[in-house]
Amino acid sequence: MFSEKKQRTATVEPGTAQNRINEGTKINGDVSSTGFFRIDGEIRGDVTTPSKIVLGKTGVIIGTLTCENADIEGKIKGNLKIAGTLSLKSTAYIEGDVEVGKLAVEPGATLNASCIMKGKQPKNISASQNVNPEAEKTHPFDRQQRLKKVPESSQNG
């Protein structure tokens, strides 16, 4: 009973450790961690974490950034895959393809990218897709359209 070793499943959960890449540091290659990242240097490669990324004003990423949340003040050339919130500060410069859950952009930020927002789909999405195109063309105050909907017996009376 006590001698049995239970196998733990390896799940990637955000860690509490903070990783920092300081200004003046250049990394060529992919970077992966389970903890929070603060990047003020330059990374040429993919950056992956299930946690948060903060890219400082002097930070540069040339490659794919995959994380939960990101605060960007620096420059990214490549793809971004942010499951949660992407916050672009006024000094941010993004060039590439962006896939986010939520997007916050301060005035002054540059976003030269195609952006796809991946959020929760509304429950009645199928109902909104089956809208009658004729109904979209009518105006609610159009008298002719209202008269068409009223039965003829009530118009004569």
Q: Give the overall form.
A: elongated
Unreliable segments (pLDDT under 50, ≥5 consecutive)?
none
User: How many angstroms does the end-to-end distance come to?
Assistant: 88 Å
The gyration radius over C-alpha positions equals: 25 Å
Portion of residues within helices? 10-25%
Number of helices: 4
Secondary structure: number of strands = 14
What is the succession of H and E elements? EEEEEEEEEEEEEEHHHH
Strand content: 35-45%
Descriptive report:
There is one protein chain. The chain is mostly beta strands and 157 residues long. Helices cover 14% and strands 41% of the residues. The protein is built from four helices and 14 strands. The protein has helices spanning 125-129, 133-137, 143-149, 152-156; strands spanning 18-21, 26-28, 31-32, 36-39, 42-44, 47-48, 52-55, 60-62, 65-67, 69-72, 75-77, 80-88, 93-105, 110-117. Strands 1, 2, 3, 4, 5, 6, 7, 8, 9, 10, 11, 12, 13 and 14 form a 14-stranded parallel beta sheet that branches.
